[in-house]
Request: fold
Amino acid sequence: MRNLIYLFLGLMIFTSCKDSKGDEAAKPAEGERPNILWIRSEDNGTYIGPYGDKVAQTPNLDKLAKNGLRYTNAFANAPVCAVNRSSIILGIPAITTGTQHMRSRFRVPDSLVAYPTLLKEAGYYLTSYGRTDYNNSSFDKEIYDEYGKTAHYKNRPAGKPFFHVFNILATHEGQIFEIRDYPEAQTPADGIVIPPYQVNTPENIRDWQLVYDRVADMDKQVGKFLADLEESGEAENTIVIYSSDHGGITLRSKRYLYDSGTRVPLIISVPEKWKHLAPDKPGSVLDRLVQMSDITPTILSLAGAEVPDRMNGHVFMGPSTEPAPETVLLFSDRFVSAPEMRRGITDGRWKYIRNYEPDRPRFQMITYPILQHGQLSQVKEYQAGRTNPAQSAFFLTQPPEELYDTQADPYEIKNLAGLPDYADKLRMMGQKLNDQLLAARDAGFIPEPMMAAIDQDTTTTIYDFSQSTERYHLDEIFTIANKAQKKDPKMIPDLVQNLKHNDPIIRYWSILGLRVLGKEAKQALKDIEVALEDTEASVRINAMITLGNIGLRDKALTLLIKEAKAATTDAHANWALDGIKYLDAPEAIVGFEEKELVKGSDSRTTYRDLANGGTMYRPAVYKEFPYK
Reply:
């Protein structure tokens, strides 16, 4: 018996020692830092298995979520790729750096250092494959040790921790365009649920089938990257982050501030060795509010790198975890060739949107997204009068303000902004947005033609300009801009008075306020005519559009053509041509040839829209499109 007791005690000691050694092996050595692998897919929202989608075939993401942390309230600050990447790479909202217009490529100052550079300085080996496109002209792929198809963390020097980004293009909106041969859909149509703001056309169903096909392709790539990590022997040393860059690609998603364009999947897997850095156990579902720009300081913090004070994101993992933000700031500006300015915030439930150009329809009538059969079919359904109110709303003029309870109304169909019962909530959310825009020193209040002129001045940058309280009078600009977007005739005296202001940005917002009033601005005709001679192009162009709105259309169109021909930057030419698009007058460019434009893709796109009959109210249908 004694021998049996000794044997039992011996086994217990052996097991205890073995477990102790196992625990010891699972702990990082002093000074050791985790590798970080970020797998990022493009243009897909939360329609994947881990978020409850029954149609999606995503076994690899399902497994990653089961062993990791799934965040249910993660948002992209901007609903388009390059603008959101600009916010992430610098850890600052693109509206602060002046890089919020899609592919504007404006410079940023050397003082704003990209986070991969900070990781490199902290001793990490930096690799990336799939995409840079940070929406500025100051840096690109050179911020990595390796970039491209052959870039891989396996190539790093011995002993160095790595940071690697895989960017997956399989789910990008262009992957379902007709020009890609429109392959036979593999996902069954049965079970696909079309959002109520979309039209249930055969073409739209087919596009959704292709969306799910591409999501399945993306998941396979995720599986390959994770298998490579296991094979490398580094899985136990590596924190894996999976996210998309913004929301989805079907109608009213990408480019819009609704959850369909901004809510994103975020899954983070932390190995046993680094579990002390995780906020909860594997398999947990977290409702903490996270924005994409929070990932930047979080990665730097986990890596033991410097987190600059200028980064206003919130660290959400590790020993330096900070409180979650109360709200996420959302913004959308010019995408492709369509000028626009929308701002919003969400707390995960309540969504508030302010449309600074409330005379424009929600649907921007740009050509690129209607390369999707589904989107074009829905445009045609609306034009034929076969859409219900929820579906038609997307093609109508947008209201100055929008408020949604996304818990009760997940598709954001019922705008609560005008209802008395929600007046306090509207006021509170509006004030929170005001505070965030002022704190961000939002450069979006500078009209883009003026931004282009500032960017051409090599002694400064748009960021430096907008940070200067002496040069950028944001408080005063903000006051008049918020009056202008109200679309309220009572504001006309204030707007007319500020047309004489010595700050051209304030004059711009004053004329825009008259523009959005349409025919009601006729009482200010003499002042509008004076603005036609303004020294600032953006003021002149908007005075011309306002002139067209109140009935002097022929004069307005003649002046807009003249302005486009005299333009010195792409932004200047594009705004003049967009004025013609706004006035629904493609015939105005007859005799004006594309070669007369300054070099630039946006103005050429607008010109081609007009040449093919496209306006703000009628999408262009190119002759090479496969539909008539």
Summary: Residues 1-24, 624-628 have pLDDT under 50 and may be disordered. The first strand starts at residue 35 and ends at 41. The domain at 35-328 is CATH 3.40.720.10 (Alkaline Phosphatase, subunit A).
